[in-house]
């Protein structure tokens, strides 16, 4: 048996603060053209793929930062992407900043959507693990204000049956948390799409540079794939954006944990891997047969406590 | 600040089925001598370090397999190890098969102990994630009967304050399960000791050989270390034992996830790394500050279900 789907990882180079959303979308459409030429059935775009990674900027006035967010999806700016993808019969994952009016409140999320091969939005995810900080921090070499611009996602980690498989989503820092993959693994996930924007140095430890940052990114993604027997496509926005360097290193990872494709540039670049979703089956039935091997009676702390409780 | 401890990883070559426990112990004492000469304060020995990896053999009669187990610890066979370690002021971790009389039942566990620098047993762990199968399986190229010889551990994943740090333990297959490290990470663990015996080919997929098996071992250990900001020493029994090849590749891993030392042989071999337990602090206070970043309200499935529940 095989359930083949050729997957494109559409890494984006930097989107400078003054670049328009329609310009970013036209770059994505160009990558989609290339994915179509290569026979892809699914394409993964980065996190916050329509704008600069604005959480590096501290903007006090919400009227000023509101333009970074999308009220509706699709909307006129992204319509060309939806139309071209449907024309090609390519499903896709797209990250963007979402502003929603819910329960009489204005709510801001770091969001991604899963679009099937007919252009229909079949799933929406809101980033659970927001890194960084909620207030301007003069101690850092640069800001990472995700906890200021967004609230934590409120929908958990659902999965969706689509494109002849079981698909899940997460965003950026989520990939460092094994709980992310495990919650989806417990729903039988076969393909996890994730976009990221990751500074090439650690704002609190400048000597931690791009090589170490890429190592941590790969390690987390590969372990999540292997330990849950799922494909993972981790796709970056990369390069020097508003003067800040973001790592590239987009990868598509096999359920064995092995890297199938890797971006070589920090620009717009399509990586491609032929993924047989049935390659997940062997591990799911043997070493990672959760029903036979997991022991939740000993995992209570994972849910019962948030932070560390030191021993006496 | 620094809390330095030089750690020795005492990989063992094969222990054939007819080798006596006192012979195995004398090999361990020789590694301890070497560790003392190198200035180690803590030494990690493998899983089931006193005998061959007997779960590869199907033995019907419990009187026959009983000799592989220890009723008491320490006991005359291992006394030379305890005495020499105390003389040197070296703490250690040791894996062995345990038979216990509890609640009027004879119980068998795959166990490890943590011994402090005075020779006192400060902690006992019983392997939670038993791999393999409970009955003879003619489909496999070789047997892996851990579920036949042992029952799953009943003490969870405790940690202990000892040797100026917070130490935890696990065994072999536990290292592939992120829950193992996370439960200890939530107790502030700074050093995880783990021993393993890992066949060099997959008994259900013979084309998965030692290179891939080492990759999976490294990946799981490095991710567990990084994502919980802890040192991990993963130490093998290696080489061709009773005609079956076990991988070596013992490693000591830094809280950054980077490998500090790696065994190069499949024989008795000491690897050494100088570990500063304060290297755990930076990550525990920043990217993996669990109290600030974890979101247990979305992790419920990890505890609420054992096996996969597929979406509709």
Properties at a glance:
homodimer; 312 residues; alpha/beta; 7-stranded mixed sheet; 9 helices; EC 3.5.1.77 (chains A, B); N-carbamoyl-D-amino acid hydrolase activity (chains A, B); hydrolase (chains A, B); plasmid (chains A, B); C-N_Hydrolase_sf (chains A, B)
Describe, in short, the structure shown:
2 copies of one chain form a homodimer. Chain A has helices spanning 21-37, 62-65, 79-88, 146-149, 178-185, 210-228, 281-285, 290-293, 300-304, and strands at residues 4-11, 42-44, 69-70, 91-102, 105-115, 121-126, 159-162, 165-171, 191-196, 231-236, 239-241, 244-246, 251-253, 259-262, 269-276.
How is this structure best described in words?
2 copies of one chain form a homodimer. With 312 residues, the first copy, chain A, is an alpha/beta fold. Chain A has a single domain, classed as Nitrilase/N-carbamoyl-D-aminoacid amidohydrolase. In chain A, 24% of the residues lie in helices and 28% in strands. Chain A starts with a strand and ends in an 8-residue tail after the last helix. The mean pLDDT of chain A is 97. Chains A and B meet through β7, α5, α6, α8 and α9 of A and β7, α5, α6, α8 and α9 of B.
Write the layout of secondary structure elements.
The structure is a homodimer of 312-residue chains.
Chain A: E1 4-11, H1 21-37, E2 42-44, H2 62-65, E3 69-70, H3 79-88, E4 91-102, E5 105-115, E6 121-126, H4 146-149, E7 159-162, E8 165-171, H5 178-185, E9 191-196, H6 210-228, E10 231-236, E11 239-241, E12 244-246, E13 251-253, E14 259-262, E15 269-276, H7 281-285, H8 290-293, H9 300-304
Parallel strand pairs in A: 1-2, 2-4, 3-4, 8-9, 9-10
Antiparallel strand pairs in A: 1-15, 4-5, 5-6, 7-8, 10-13, 11-12, 13-14
């Amino acid at each position: 048996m095989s359930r083949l789907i050729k997957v494109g990882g559409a890494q984006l180079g930097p989107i400078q603060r003054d670049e328009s959303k329609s310009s970013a979308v036209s770059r994505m459409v160009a990558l989609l053209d290339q994915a179509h030429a290569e026979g892809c059935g699914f394409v993964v775009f980065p996190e916050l793929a329509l704008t600069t990674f604005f959480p590096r900027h501290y903007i006090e006035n919400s009227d000023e930062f509101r333009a970074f967010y999308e009220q509706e999806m699709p909307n006129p700016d992204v319509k060309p992407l939806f139309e071209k993808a449907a024309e090609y019969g390519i499903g896709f994952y797209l990250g963007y900043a979402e502003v929603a009016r819910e329960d009489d409140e204005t709510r801001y999320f770091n969001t991604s959507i899963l679009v099937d091969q007919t252009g229909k939005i079949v799933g929406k995810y809101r980033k659970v693990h927001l890194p960084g900080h909620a207030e301007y921090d003069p101690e850092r070499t640069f800001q990472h204000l995700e906890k200021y611009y967004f609230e934590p996602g409120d929908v958990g980690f659902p999965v969706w049956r689509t494109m002849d498989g079981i698909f899940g989503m997460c965003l950026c820092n989520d990939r460092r948390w094994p709980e992310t993959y495990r919650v989806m693994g417990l729903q039988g996930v076969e393909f996890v799409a994730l976009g990221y924007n990751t500074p090439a140095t650690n704002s609190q430890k400048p000597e931690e540079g791009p090589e170490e940052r890429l190592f941590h990114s790969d390690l987390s993604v590969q372990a999540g794939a292997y330990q849950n027997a799922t494909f993972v496509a981790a796709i970056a926005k990369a390069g020097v954006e508003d003067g800040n360097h973001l790592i590239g290193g987009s990868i598509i990872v096999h359920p064995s944990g092995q890297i199938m494709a890797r971006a070589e540039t920090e620009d717009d670049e399509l990586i491609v891997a032929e993924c047989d979703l049935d390659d997940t089956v062997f591990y799911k039935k043997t070493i990672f047969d959760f029903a036979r091997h997991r022991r939740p009676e000993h995992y209570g702390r994972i849910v019962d406590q948030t932070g560390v409780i030191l021993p006496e």
